[in-house]
Amino acid sequence: MDSLLNRLRARIARLFPGRGARLSPTTRLGRLGEDEAVRHLKAEGYEILVRNYRIKQGEIDIVAFRDGVLAFVEVRAQTAPAMVDPLETITRRKQRRVIKAAQAYVTENELGRRDVAMRFDVITVLFDRQGRRQEINHLEGAFHESPRGF
């Protein structure tokens, strides 16, 4: 019974973040990074369409739009000193999961290549030990979909 209750609590915490669930330091850092990424994108003139778009096969941190381009944004947050380049943490497997989620988003919203250009971006955010943003980098077109496309 306890394991079922724990599984239900974990599922509720994933579906409804921040509702009575204790967030791990990694999750808190990720959310803080996503918040900073959203602020950065808005300052650059992007419209934020959705955050944390999820399907069974993957997730997109941020879907944003500017100048006819739909950007699917993966956010990587780290605390200084960074031990690895955050871009190296985006494996080919992770890229495939983001691409699958983007395909689902496009299908769900009845978009196509003729409607809008699409791009996969990465935003890296570096924080100091007190949680203050030190650096933010936005790499447009950081990775690409498979040659077969959507």
Kindly summarize this structure in a few lines:
The protein contains three helices and five strands. The chain is of the alpha+beta class and 150 residues long.
Please explain how this structure is put together.
The protein has 150 residues and is an alpha+beta fold. It has a single domain, classed as Trna Endonuclease, Chain: A, domain 1 (3-Layer(aba) Sandwich), CATH 3.40.1350.10. 33% of the residues lie in helices and 34% in strands. It contains 3 helices and 5 strands; from the N terminus they run ααβββαββ. The protein has helices at 2-15, 25-43, 92-108; strands at residues 47-55, 58-66, 69-79, 117-127, 133-143. It has a 5-stranded mixed beta sheet with strand order 1-2-3-4-5. Strand 2 and strand 3 form a beta hairpin. The radius of gyration is 16 Å and the shape is globular. The mean pLDDT is 85.
Keywords, please?
alpha+beta, 150 residues, Trna Endonuclease, Chain: A, domain 1
Low-confidence stretches: none
What can be said about the biggest beta sheet?
5 strands, mixed
What topology, given as strand order, has the largest sheet?
Answer: 1-2-3-4-5
Radius of gyration: 16 Å
State the CATH topology. Trna Endonuclease, Chain: A, domain 1
Helix count? 3
Quick check: average pLDDT?
85
* The CATH C-level class name: Alpha Beta
First and last CA, distance: 44 Å
What is the beta-strand fraction?
25-35%
What order do the SSEs take from the amino end to the carboxyl end, as H and E? HHEEEHEE
| Structure class | alpha+beta
Number of domains: 1
